[in-house]
């Protein structure tokens, strides 16, 4: 077989924990993707209210899903430590309050951008507020002074700006079924502008993804042979295979498909390729949710 399934998890692993992690990744990617799309991909493409509504809908769903995962985490903490939900909330301290506050700010920003989406300039403050809130979510751990409190959230942020923005682009602007949202004959040209902007964002995000990913992997593995001698390492190897597949497909879109944009036939090709890339990315998220639920090797 070309791809081997992840190895059996170690004791301490639960599928419920992995499912919660996956839900959290989906929420974060939706939020960060909408923010990346609204602030970096959409400007200059002549957006319409319908495109903005679709994009902000993805972000709003991301905020709500993230709230839900936080509630699930609180309930799990309360159960494990035999606390009430209120006591578990108090135990979360300032870090939990900051997370919730940034989520509220992101929601306010997205709703503001949605309300004023018909006017590009008027929507910018909303997108900017959502971006600041998203950055606050990713960097909130910096106040602890611990590198680990920043690297993992930045890794998720980078993935969300890449794959999340691609999903929003594919959902809100690429399909020919939404071509009527632009003036006659302007859909393909608008797509070309957005894809060029997305490519720049994806390249920068992938660089940050590599740096934070290598840092996280080394911190957990401690030694090179743990890659093939531990369940954590072997699961990481499976993840890397699919990450390389996503990156390869992204490179194909960037170098071969994007230069032909400007016509609807090229847009159709990009839509099909983007769907495949997103499918592979979903597999990566599932494997990542399993990976973070497996106890790391002992040093």
Automatic annotation (TrEMBL):
Domain Copper resistance protein D: 194-291
Entry membrane topology: Multi-pass membrane protein
Gene Ontology cellular component annotations, sorted alphabetically: plasma membrane
Annotated keywords: Cell membrane, Membrane, Plasmid, Transmembrane, Transmembrane helix
Record's keyword annotation contains Transferase: no
Transmembrane segments: 22-42, 54-75, 95-113, 125-143, 155-178, 198-218, 238-257, 278-296
GO biological process, one term: copper ion transport
Pfam families linked: CopD
Compartments where located: Cell membrane
Residues in the signal sequence: none
Name of the protein in question: Copper resistance D domain protein
Species name: Gemmatirosa kalamazoonensis
Organism phylogeny: Bacteria, Pseudomonadati, Gemmatimonadota, Gemmatimonadia, Gemmatimonadales
């Amino acid at each position: 077989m070309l791809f081997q399934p992840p190895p059996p998890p170690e004791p301490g692993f639960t599928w419920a924990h992995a499912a919660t992690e996956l839900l959290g990744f989906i929420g974060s990617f939706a939020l960060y993707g909408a923010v990346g799309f609204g602030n970096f991909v959409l400007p200059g493409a002549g957006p319409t209210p319908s495109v903005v509504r679709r994009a902000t809908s993805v972000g709003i769903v991301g905020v709500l899903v993230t709230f839900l995962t936080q509630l699930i985490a609180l309930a799990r903490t309360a159960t494990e430590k035999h606390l009430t939900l209120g006591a578990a909330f108090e135990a979360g301290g300032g870090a939990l309050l900051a997370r919730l506050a940034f989520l509220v700010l992101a929601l306010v920003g997205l709703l503001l951008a949605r309300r004023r989406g018909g006017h590009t300039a008027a929507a910018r403050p909303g997108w900017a507020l959502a971006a600041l809130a998203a950055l606050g979510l990713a960097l909130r751990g910096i106040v602890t002074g611990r590198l680990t409190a920043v690297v993992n959230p930045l890794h998720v942020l980078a993935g969300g700006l890449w794959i999340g923005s691609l999903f929003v682009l594919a959902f809100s602007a690429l399909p020919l079924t939404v071509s009527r949202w632009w003036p006659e004959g302007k859909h393909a040209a608008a797509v070309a502008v957005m894809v060029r902007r997305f490519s720049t964002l994806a390249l920068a995000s992938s660089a940050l993804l590599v740096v934070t990913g290598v840092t996280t992997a080394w911190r957990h593995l401690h030694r090179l042979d743990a890659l093939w001698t531990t369940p954590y390492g072997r699961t990481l190897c499976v993840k890397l295979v699919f990450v390389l597949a996503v990156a390869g497909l992204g490179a194909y879109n960037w170098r071969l498909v994007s230069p032909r944009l400007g016509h609807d036939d090229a847009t159709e090709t990009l839509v099909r390729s983007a769907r495949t890339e997103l499918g592979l990315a979903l597999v990566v998220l599932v494997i990542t949710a399993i990976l973070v639920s497996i106890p790391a090797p002992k040093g």
